[in-house]
Amino acid sequence: MKMIKVIVVFMWFTLSCCLEAQTIDLNGQLIANDEVEGLHILNKTAAKYTISNDDGSFVIPAKVSDTLVISGVKYQLEEVIITASIIELGEFNVQLKEKVNELNEVVVGKILTGNLESDLENSEAEPKINFYDLGIPGFTGKPLTQNERKLFDADAGDMVGLVGGTYGGGPSLNLNKFLNTISGRTKKLKAIVELDNRSSCIERLRRDYESYIFEKDTLAENLHNEFFLFCQEDARFLNLCKENNDLELLEFLLAKLEIYQENRTSVIKE
């Protein structure tokens, strides 16, 4: 009986040692009230990292005692130390906390001091809100699309001097922007946003000019879409769309239609 207990203890000790030394692919799940796609998960111990999927799931290699750091623009930095039970289960969840910007003390009410500059500041005039003075994020221009918001989150801030800080109070590294840059996610999002802009411009051109362009042209209707895609591939196309000059755009389309027809004639003859 004593020998059996010794064997059991030995097996348990061996199994524990194996679990501690074993590196496996852990399945993680980020949980939050907002978007959880594109957040960075860094294994500081093993120098491995990955990016979360649109549902917040991710896979990263780790072993017992490894430290994982989860970072994102909208959320507080989270650290997770991998335990033997997590390794045994092969999966774990992380609840994220949103960053909250605290405002300085605000005095409510009119205060007249006799000083013209001070009294003007306390008048009922309503200047435009400066979000940055308030210490909160904001945007007063055209609302961003979903892909533009993703790009802004991935590429926000300077590479040095935004996130974290050194113990000596010197410059710090924007970890989120750095990881998005080296992983290629920022470059990919820029390409997606450019494609969105091209597609949006094409839709507007078709809506405004399609009937006029083809009014005296014999191009078959089933080739109209191909023609507009041909226009979209021109290097000048996106800049012309941004300038929003209807006359130049119309001249551009008519010139491209002539080239497109010549190309089709050459292909048919061959």
Morphology = elongated
The CATH topology of the largest domain: Immunoglobulin-like
CATH class of the largest domain: Mainly Beta
N- and C-termini, Cα separation: 92 Å
List how many beta strands DSSP finds: 7
Estimated structural class: alpha+beta
Radius of gyration: 29 Å
Strand order of the largest sheet: 3-2-5-6
**CATH arch. level architecture of the largest domain:** Sandwich
Helix segment count? 10
| Largest β sheet strand count, sense and barrel closure | 4 strands, antiparallel
Order of helices and strands: HEEEEEEHEHHHHHHHH
The domain tally reads 3
Please tell me the overall pLDDT.
Answer: 76
Concise overview:
This protein is of the alpha+beta class and 270 residues long. The chain has 3 domains: 2-95, Immunoglobulin-like (Sandwich); 116-183, no CATH class; 188-269, no CATH class. It is built from 10 helices and 7 strands.
Folded structure, characterized:
There is one protein chain. It is built from ten helices and seven strands. It is of the alpha+beta class. It has three domains: 2-95, Immunoglobulin-like; 116-183, no CATH class; 188-269, no CATH class. A four-stranded antiparallel β-sheet has the order 3-2-5-6, covered by helices on one side. A three-stranded mixed β-sheet has the order 4-1-7. α5 (146-155) runs antiparallel to α7 (185-213). It is elongated, with a radius of gyration of 29 Å. The termini are far apart.
